[in-house]
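Hello K.,

You asked for the raw outputs rather than the summary table, so here they are, unedited. I folded two proteins back to back in the same session to keep the settings identical. This is the first:
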Amino acid sequence: MSDAPAPRHQVTHHPDGRVSLSPGADLGGSRYVNDDLRPLSMEQRNWSTYDFTALWVGMAVNIPSWTLAGGLVALGMDWKQAVLTIALGNLIVLAPMVLTGHAGAKYGIPFPVFARAAFGVRGANLPALLRGATACGWFGIQTWIGGQGIFFLTGRLIGPEWSEAAPVGGEPWTMWLSFLLFWALQVAIISWGMEAVRRLQDWAAPFMLLGGVVLLVWMARQAGGLGPMLSQPSELGWGPEFWVVFFPALMGMIGFWSTLSLNISDFTRFSGSQKAQLRGQSLGLPTTMTAFALLSVLVTSGSQAVYGEPIWDPVQLAARMDSTVGVIFALIVVLMATISTNIAANLVGPAYDLSNLAPRLIGFRTGAMITCVVSVLIFPWKLIESPSVYIFTWLGTVGGLLGTVAGILIADYWLLRRSRLRLDALYLRGADYWYSGGWNRRALAAFAVGGVLAIGGSYSEPGSGPFPADGLIPLLQPLADYSWAVGFLTAFALHALLHRLFPPDRTPRPESITAGGEAAAAVGRSHPHSGSGEPPR
């Protein structure tokens, strides 16, 4: 074996600020790269503002988004309070979306590779697997909901022989069949790759918005106009009872998209420019979620006026339609909405995350298949049995943990590195982001402290959740209602502070080329900012 440094001219800096690997760059010997994790070429970065806007319309218009808004009405809010909560939550979460999306657009890299800069080449597996496990839960929830949509609406068309079929495991066997069919349909689509995801979002988004408007018009006719839908009073008022519900609900709204705020670079890496991802996300996320939330709370309020109770599941509501054509239309909308969201939000991310775990063994499609299998094994139907468990326990806890990761990534990329990365070093052993054995202990410490503070006080109302009534750590219970903000701010500050107090060794350690051909990295020894990815100034 002989020591050999990596080439010095591995990257190309383009006039618009984006960075790509040079045509002659060779990462083929690294065990930390495959074709799916490798930076995209400039020719592959072709998504426009419309593509990103349509992506967010496709992801935001879905049954869980609907039930999220309707669930707030079921918890006692009126339509104004529910829409305010959702709009504010999505404006807040837009900021980390755009900030982390910048790295994807600039360097053409997916989330787990981006995370290597902060956590280390090996350490990035921690946030990647956390995000991947969360996506498995979401994929299971969405698939179960899609299967329910097929089951209920098909039963409305066929009759009792379908909806009252013999039970298996507590559910009619036709429900399990619907679940399996919907699962298999998604597997078939994702096997076509990311271009199929983009095309699906582009033409499905307008159709799904139309479906929501049709449901609103139908409910308005049932309720006798918009008046009864807007007149349902708040059971909480604007006093202390409202604020007790508002803050944990707000954290739930943020937690709803906390997964995408981490791995949005899985999509922005395809962006044709920074403006495309910035404008597309700003136009797509807060506006669509707010408009869709308004539709949801109006229809849910209307169902309360018509049926005497709020029906926050649109599938159950659509099943009450008298028109066969209306039911068929509702079935198509349910399928399109759930498929477009589930594939984009809950399969793309973990596919890259699992690929990052073992790049030589797991590619994008294999990672997606693993996600599909794992998602069935977590019994996702248990997570959405009630609004309190769905919004507070599931979204709040998950959001708190992912908030710590977002804080670390943003502090590292923007505060410490000023958005400058050494692109080739993200794939090389012994280079700038190798730290100690591939792990950045400062990021691990910030994650541990932020995570404990964010979810250590998690609590449940007696009999309504898995946590003790006084919190896992009673002293931290007051922080539980602000889990995402606590995790984000704590990890952001601590990661930055630890790097200032204990700066990592910026001199890469040369590694020999092994029998397997893994290239070493001894680039940039002569300049103290060699990890920046920018030419010395």
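The second followed immediately with the same parameters:
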Amino acid sequence: MDPIKPAKVVKEALEKAVEKVADLVTPPAPGKPAGVSPPVDPPNRPQGPLPRKPDQASPSTRTATGAETGAAADTRGQQAEYLTTAQGARLYDTDHSLKAGERGPTLLQDHHLREKITHFDHERIPERVVHARGAAAHGVFVGYGTAAQVCKAGFLAEGVTTPVFTRFSTVVGSRGSADTVRDTRGFATKFYTAEGTFDLVGNNIPVFFIQDGIKFPDIIHAVKPHPDREIPQAQSAHDTFWDFVSLHTEATHHLFWHLSDRGIPRSYRMMEGFGVHTFRLVDAKGATTLAKFHWKPKLGVHSLTWEEAQLINGIDPDFHRRDLADAIESGAFPQWELGIQVFPDTPEQTFEGIDLLDPTKIVPEELAPVQPIGMLTLNRNPTNFFAETEQVAFHVGHLPPGIDVTDDPLLHARLFSYLDTQITRLGGPNFAQIPINRPHAPVNDMLRDGFHQHAVQSGVAPYKPNTLDGGCPFMAGADVGAYVEVAQPVAQSVKQREAPASFADHFTQPRLFYRSLSPVEREHVVRAFTFELGKCYEQSIRERALRILANVDAELCAQVADGLGLPAPEATKPVGEVTPSPALSQIGQVWPTAGRIVGIVVDAENQASLDGLHELRQAINAAGLTPLVIAARGGHLEDGLEAQRTFLTARSVEFDALLLAAAPPPAPDALPSRDDKAAAQTAVDPRVVLMIEECYRHAKAIGAWGDGPTALLEARVAPDDLGIVVGDSPAGVFQQVQELLGTHRVWDRFPATVV
């Protein structure tokens, strides 16, 4: 008998067994710190840097002047097996300073100590004054070609794929603040186009607090922490902010968006983006059109409840940045469709009576539909946060041929401010040569020297005109892709510091926004105004803010005044009728559920609760969602099945929906002395009961089978209530829960009182 044949048979049988187990083992939960799991004991054999994780990418390996190098993506990373100085000299020790004897003083000649400490002392750059706390990702943008009739920009042509880097951020807080505070969010995308870099630097709110950029320091100084105590951090619920906005009524429209659910998005992946300003587009024949940019998330627009946001700020201040990174790592790539609203480029620059140069105004989508022109997909996480997310420099003046600015006074101030702030933050005028900022188009700018000059320019004539360098670089014409500003007529008038009369209506559009919301969304606006004004110390500021609300909506004003214990004032301006815009509401549609997080409560001591769990996790993963099993203890449950969360570590706010496979009794660690959440005396583990109660009042879908309905009853949740699914099979329950997730929440569970 051939001795090799049995071995081959055994090998094939083992391979089939492994494949069978693999069929049952679903992908691990995202969040693995490194690409390779570490050993228990410290490594003792030299090896080079480990490869980066599959979900990560780095800036394109280009020279400081935009040329492709062909180098591997990890070329800029650390090299070799041994620790060295910054100049490459190998080190034998980095734990001890060089001293005069074992106990002697440290010697000045210790160049390694000085290099290490000096670099540490300077490794922080000044944080952004605004948008300091951010998260970002690499991706691609694919043009549809539908913009060709109004814009000649090459990256918008059909099928053109452009690398991008997108950064999301909060506005008010410092780098160390929390993610889920009530705030406006930045939505900035750097397109590395073949015609030069294009930065679309917008927000998740389509309007701004001010109409003229000269007031930007005022609004930011007002909303930042009070200068005496440096509190509150990353909050608008305080006196200086409300003092300013109650005196400066042009902020009212943005204020309503800010205090709606838009101010606390569920995820960056479920957040709209807006270019805010009106831009001028130029087609191939030189004709111009005015336009506003919109980012529409494929997952729909979805927000946190106020209580969820407060809980998350304490439980996981990194909630949004973790959500973005985990979604990309798990393959649930976020997508947004870029669209434009287009308007005739008339001398008045208005549309349907709306001044297009007023950044506190929108044009309802029912009047000017958003036309899709391309798709953004974020598919790689940064390799290094500082080198990429922190050092990326956006500028509204980074424009490709085909896109020009208008005379919006807020936009014009930004054209100066962004360039000025990059020079301060990034150490000089050469910030565009930092790898994440390098263009993917050839650069020959004749700009020389300065701090952090990476380019090694040749030639002797960095000036124009010249003959010593053969006349290079030459001027380009429009026929070879030069950026040529639109020859827009400039009004003949006197110099003055005034705003157009058409900027003066500060209340009609806030009323349009408020009356366009669903009743439950209006409830949230009432609560937000009541909470924020209730945190103000000075009653005069609260009374002044109520006068503004009276000019927007009498019912809203009355509800907030009642919550503050103050009389509701009468309107001082006529409150006009508005036609609601359904596009302004986040509620009422069905959206994809990819990337949602589903918690599954099991009882490891009850085998019945584990039956069908492998198949359930496979079904959840196949649907593009992430299942997280929650048990009394973490780790191994059975072959191919692990608990990713415990009753101690899990909290309802992490999950978009909750599935109950069991009604686990109190675990050994369900002790008030060990876990405050375990203080209640219940037949089911009190942490599980708390999760159910929170998911219920946050209007989330809950499913149960087996012993799960018992846990519902312990939490005083009726099995036949709205958004509660009880069934016989895990797969059947999940299917119904997934359908409920398509509408984000079960708002009908709590009928609104406002109309």
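The first helix runs from residue 4 to 24.

Happy to rerun anything if the numbers look odd on your end.

Regards,
P.
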